[in-house]
């Protein structure tokens, strides 16, 4: 029984890893006051960049592949920063456009990589009969570091102040635009890292739509965990367990498999409704989604 529970926890951690990484990136964005609905597209581009570099030759560097994924995520998110921070466009419209651009570009450019072998994948660590990806440990460490940064450092205070009251931060000499630009690009880099995990570790291949809606769940997860990086760990494990349960029960239950495929998305609606009932949405940064123009109230 203990082995079954341990296996479920390890698998939930593995499946929840891309959710956690993408959720941490979205938390950085939204703590600075910028909503980014383009996480799905950023993950897709990151996965493609990682696989494209890693599949070049048997000697290709996995570190270079991971770096390429993060760079691709940051570069694509710069479009969102330019639109929302510099041009002051609607953040929701820009994020949706980013999701479509990212998934569309990845699907188009990735056609030549479908079916190609991955010479090297990121090796998993053996933990007494169970395996764990280094990406999973990195995601857990990043969650702890982000929580410390936001709550215990001057930089974290600056980031939170920009998301809560950008006008007050501006008066104190904070470059609101620069902070928001860096936050959006940093969040995009983490979303790209989530895509690298899919391409280099979890699936070790490239296929169109390999993100399978994980980016959208990560966006909803931010609200569910109240913009808290440590709660994001628990939330990602919870949804990871739902995916694990989906795989375990398919073929062993009279319930149609489509029900299990839809389960994580149904639970997203449920948990968001519950979060709204208990006032979780009240934890959102006060300036979230609002355009800041110096001198305007």
UniProtKB/TrEMBL annotation:
Annotated membrane topology: Multi-pass membrane protein
Domain of life assignment: Bacteria
DNA damage among keywords: no
Transmembrane segments: 9-28, 34-54, 61-83, 89-109, 130-150, 181-202, 214-247, 259-276
UniProt xrefs under Pfam families: BPD_transp_2
Chief localization: membrane
Localization, UniProt: Cell membrane
Record's keyword terms, sorted: Cell membrane, Membrane, Transmembrane, Transmembrane helix
Protein name: ABC transporter permease
Organism listed in the record: Deinococcus antarcticus
